[in-house]
Amino acid sequence: MVRMNEFEYNQLSSSSKQLSPFIHQVGGHSSIFQYDKNTICKILAPSELDFYQSMPESLKNYTSEFRGIVTVQYCEDESGLIKLVARRQKNSFDDDSLSDEQDMPSPNDPQSSDSMARKSVQLRCSKDGSIDYSNSLGIDIANYEQGKTIMSTINPWSLQLCKKQAEKLHSQLVGDENVSVSQKYILLENVTARFHNPCILDLKMGKRQYADVDSDKKRQSKIKKSESSTSSKLGVRLCGMQVYQIDSCRYIFTDKYRGRMLNIEEFCSSLVQYFDNGSTQRIDVISGIIERLEALHVIISSLVKYRFYGGSLLIVYDGSVNSKCIDVRMIDFAHTISAKTNDDESSMCHSDPDKGYLHGLESLIGIFRDILNNGGKNTVGIEPEK
Ligand SMILES: Nc1ncnc2c1ncn2[C@@H]1O[C@H](COP(=O)(O)OP(=O)(O)OP(=O)(O)O)[C@@H](O)[C@H]1O
Ligand SMILES: [Mg+2]
Q1: TM spans, by residue (predicted)?
Q2: Which domains does the chain have, with CATH numbers?
């Protein structure tokens, strides 16, 4: 087990960075960590790394900037406090974009409503080997039930994934005092960094999510999820959402399990709910989102031999009412087929643009236009969930 004393921790901090849970992770199956204010890290998948390193120029405005590779080491201090420490891979990337000035927001920054919450997110391992948050956050997770839309100051999905990841790493260490657990991660631009209260939608795009290389079992499971959700009809399904509520200063969270259960009307209602801050409908941000979706449609239409299987669109706007800041980015390229990998053998199957992705974009543009034209009202006759 890698246990360190105070001195060893201080040594680490000069050559490496301590990660914290990324509290604005709304979807996904493995934990994303925060490297600095503007940068997150995600477990390295070779196919995703490949995509980021050979991405077409036209997609650069619609993806997160790739910022290199780190090795992340799991350690526990003498009191059981868990630390994940990232070291940059030598020569992996020009470090200019990652200065210390871009570090975590100052706790005194009144604009940074989540800076205090982030500070308090610490995991601890007890003597009996159980892992939990070192403060009241544990209650938020304990109360969290998958598939239920809930209200909370901090995203329970991201906390739950962090805890699971720590449990996995801890169990790998147990029984062998000399083992150290480390794993490679990629560093990516944090799309939510410039938002004070990021309202986020993770939308899985396309009817098909399985990769060419997936096993039969995995294929069948992904086909089933598509068939029983809006993916098969609209080419898009909800995989996670957080919406800032102006009066309570808390977020409403919806997870991917709830997202899979939605029918078309309920999906549309969820998109209406996405613009509802508990006091008004944020219709002022919708046209900017539509414009970006339309521009992305033009780009995807021009890309032949690409398939963004299993990929998501991340839509973000600022919950602070005086901000009209929005963003739309493509994320999750672990199962993407690109022109480079789409060799002679498979190019027969994938030689045109990704029609499934385009269908999803068209559905979204239609629904958002509908919401805008109806002044933020639900046009499908079903009330958004309370
Ligand atoms: N560049 C980014 N900036 C901000 N948030 C991000 C970024 N990339 C991912 N996220 C957050 O992390 C979540 C999971 O990301 P992603 O879909 O890449 O992970 P995954 O585990 O591969 O997903 P899946 O389970 O769909 O395979 C997203 O829902 C989003 O909230
Ligand atoms: Mg994903």
Answers
A1: none
A2: 3-189 (no CATH), 198-373 (3.30.470.160)
